[in-house]
Amino acid sequence: MAGPKLATIAWRNLWRQKRRTFLTLVSIAFGFFMAVLMMSMQDMTFSDFVDTAAQLGSGHVVVHHHEYLDTPSLGRTVHATDELRGLAADDVRVDRVVERIMGEAMVATAHDSFGAGFIAYDPAMETDDTLHFLEGLVEGEWYATADDKGIILGKVLAANLGAELGDKVVYTLMDKDGEIVAGMGRLKGTIGTGSPQGDASLFLLPLNKARKVLGYEADEATHLGVYLHDNRRSAAVAADLDEKLGEGVEASTWAEVAPDLNAFVAMKKGGGKFFLIIIGLLVAAGIFNTLFMSVMERVREFGILVAIGYTPGQIFRMVMWESVFLAITGLIFGGLITAWPYKWLSDNGIDMTEMYAGNDVSVGGVGFDMVMPCGLYPESFIFIVCCVIFATLAAGLYPAWKAGRVEPVDSIKLV
């Protein structure tokens, strides 16, 4: 019998037991619903987390001295930053390239002193998409130019130092030659980074002011931060850029610069994939039960079909067609019940403010947004659909094989 006729019979067979088929479709749809919502929260939450980490640090891709990651210091710098910026910006996947100086220093006032990290930046190059805390000014004002004066402290660091706007703040650090140097500025503003750890251990400087203190040239920095339209392209962009860079300079991804954060994200994503597998197994178990019961109820029918000329292969394909129709119909049903919740969550997110009120929700100094965003990458959607189809077809293999092995003489005797 031709394939289309087998498919027609299989479709009709599904609806001979409407309640059982409907319950199976509900289980498929519910599994699809759970998988889509979970993956949409995971995709956007960790994408935003990676972006925030890049905006608090060095970028999605970092152009730096080839020994900087092994032994970070203010002496390991890159030169000709204008040329390097142009080289990186030529890539269509790149949104913006900035140059920065980052390092460690001792910060002191008349009241106290603390160790802290600093970021020296050029306000003309930066936006909220490259420096996360540009939208976190608590009091005071930002730098207007790279030659501006003053110092900006994390709000907790300022409180610990007992510093108020206009107070003198001295910072001491080692320059590119390993000599101890000092700079001074009046407190120009305080910021909130979204992480208590960052608020207590970070201060900002204007880029050219930092260069003068450290003895850097006008086109010298510790690194270039390369920001992408899509952080998932970091590895590809870094590899392509690495081939164009000269000797002594290399490009690394955010994952290589911050391996602890990368391990955290990988662990959480791995946990999400494991949860999807559990959902798939539960769905497959329900489908298997439906198809197996259907086959066992129709043993006599299959025997008659074989007796009148159907081959075991045709019986097998007919039951597998039932699996295919369950998968397709379940996905359509799942799409219908998932569409509105997904649209609402993608527009509004999930507000976790009350749940984590007063708690430090951060990893490695990178804070999570209290409104959890939702959105599904196309490849994640395809992965979920493929998992549902695979689970459904896999669940139908044994019942289909069992149906194809029916012996006509023995089965026809059954009542």
Structure description:
- With 415 residues, the chain is an alpha+beta fold.
- It folds into two domains: 3-52 and 262-412, no CATH class; 69-221, no CATH class.
- 51% of the residues lie in helices and 19% in strands.
- The chain has helices at 3-14, 18-56, 81-89, 155-161, 196-199, 207-214, 234-244, 254-257, 259-297, 299-307, 312-348, 378-404, 408-412; strands spanning 61-65, 94-108, 113-121, 137-140, 151-154, 168-174, 180-191, 202-206, 223-228, 249-253, 350-351, 362-363, 366-367, 371-372.
- Strands 2-3-8-5-7-6 form a six-stranded mixed β-barrel. The chain has a two-stranded antiparallel ribbon with strand order 11-14. The chain has a two-stranded antiparallel sheet with strand order 12-13.
- The radius of gyration is 31 Å and the shape is elongated.
- The relative contact order is 0.18.
Q: What key phrases describe this protein's structure?
A:
six-stranded mixed barrel, 14 strands, 19% strand, 2 domains, alpha+beta, 415 residues
Number of helices: 13
In helices, the fraction of residues equals: 40-55%
Structural domain tally = 2
Global shape: elongated
Q: Unreliable runs, pLDDT <50, ≥5 residues?
A: none
Structural class estimated from helices and strands: alpha+beta
Oligomeric state of the chains present here: single chain
Main sheet attributes: strand count, strand direction, barrel closure: 6 strands, mixed, barrel
> What is the CA-based Rg, rounded?
31 Å
Average residue-wise pLDDT: 83
Beta-strand percentage? Answer: 15-25%
Task: Tell me the span between the first and last alpha carbons.
Answer: 26 Å
Total number of strands: 14
Q: Strand order across the biggest sheet?
A: 2-3-8-5-7-6
| SSE succession | HHEHEEEEHEEHEHEHEHHHHEEEEHH
